[in-house]
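Following the same procedure, the fold was encoded as tokens, giving this record:
***
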Amino acid sequence: MNRFSTLIILLSHLLVCHSQGFLRVEGINIINDEGPFIIRSIGTGNWMIQEGYMMQSTGAGINTHTQFRNKLHETMGVDRTNKFYAHWLEHHFTKTDLDSLKAWGFNTIRPALHYKWFTLPIEEEERNSIGTIQNTWLNKGFDMLDKLVAWCGENQMYVIFDMHGAPGGQGKDANISDYDPAYLSLWESADNQEKLIALWVKIAERYKNNPWVGGYDIINEPNWDVDGNSKNENGCECQNNAALWSLHQRITNAIRSVDKTHIIFISGNCWGNNYKGFENHALNGYDDNTVLTFHKYWNSNAQNAIQWAIDMRQQYQMPLWMSESGENSNHWFAEAIELFEKNNIGWSWWPVKKSRLNNVLKVTTNEDYYKLVNSWKDGSKPLSAEETYNAVMAYADAHKIENCTIAPDVIFSLNSGSHVRATKPYMHHKTEEWIQCVHYDLGNDGDAYHDALSEDIHDSSSKWAKWNVGNHFRNDGVDIGKDGDGYYVGWTEPGEWLQYTINAVQSGYYKLDIMSAAATAGGQISFLVNGAAQASNIRLPLTESGEEWNSTQIKKIYLPAGEVKVRIRIESGGSNLKAFKLTLYSESSVKEGRKLASSRLVDSGQ
């Protein structure tokens, strides 16, 4: 054990008396020393296990962590590849990331682990004289966890270890688990299962006394036809799942031989949600410090969407944790969290960062990385080893938190679930200044804005709906495009609207200037102040292109002094909206406004 690891263990003992206590189960609740605890977590994504869609390499047929690493070996050599991974692991997720997550309202982190940072694949291990695998332990994975646990202690946050990539791979969905069909999977190899058990024992021995370790999520998203009925390769039709429950029990028993304190989180088949056959195993091999998990993607946020899990909680008298969700719009996020928390279910979002809109940190992909991936995809002239190295190192640097874009809209949605109707100004808007139309209030569809499509729910008629057609700037239903000067609201449809919180320095009549563009047909808008229409069916001009901006002016918009809520409502679509400004008229208009306000007070009897 190195000196850093020894220091971490000493610090963990010192932190015990300052902690909130171990997470643990009490009936159907997860608690700590302060009482019931709602896990509000986020997953680290492709920090320790790279998934093809986050590496943006699936179009080139590179879907898994190992495929990506092998491609780098092939194109730039082993030494450069090792340097890249050392750089990636050091900078992709840091203490600054964790400090930020704490400030943004998260109380737990769920790091996605790949076993290859902790031990060798069975194909590379030696066997003893009776044929038993000799486990080789690697320092890299344990050192990373030591640092992460220490950061969590400093932030008074819990960490729940997620075995995202188990030995051999735990699912046919290889993108998730790094399964390679050329080798035996977790379910086809006793050696892989024994290695997984040994790894969990090693982790449990190391952290059994640390109160900031929230528990062990022992197999992420198993998806395998463990019944062997060939009806569904991802295990969604399995009726017994005996092999899954048996392995869970063996892992549980092994962990409990060294650690009786930490929660063990177990998952069903079919990406975590098929618990059929569990009733045959629930009383064997599980103790009263076990939590049932499920995952939720792309379905309704109505109560019936999770009622099956709540019924299971009651049946087995075991708590629930929704241990992974995400990849949707802010509207869907807020309503999902509201659903979980009103049913006493903690949650974990996925992931912290990537090159899309729906994460708290948005990565801006460097152009040479796009060039590299495209060369792999279309088979064009490959980049040199040096060019490949520079591209992937720049991509790693793009994931540093200081190079990411913070997404206040996503952060707000993940913190508003228990009061989903809340809104908040996107920024401090004032009269006399241009306000960008994309800077509408933070909040849900129906509260801060309304759009024709604001979430992606897969049903029989639709899949992969695009809630933000322009795919820029914000993760709401509002469709946002980009031009050379910034962003604009586009693809407008009748009935849609945008709300802005503005501070009017004084009451009076204002003139409204609004910048719009329309290439084919100009739309119409209405302008509302605190719910009352001040200007209706204003026709916006036709311009030379959808990005050729023209100003329209509307006079005599009355604003009371102080904070006001204004809305731009689309009466007929076709116009793109860039920015607007409210400018106070002359002093005479101020006096007229005061007179109007005074008469309203008299009329209302005040």
In short: The chain has two domains: 3-44+97-353, 422-603.
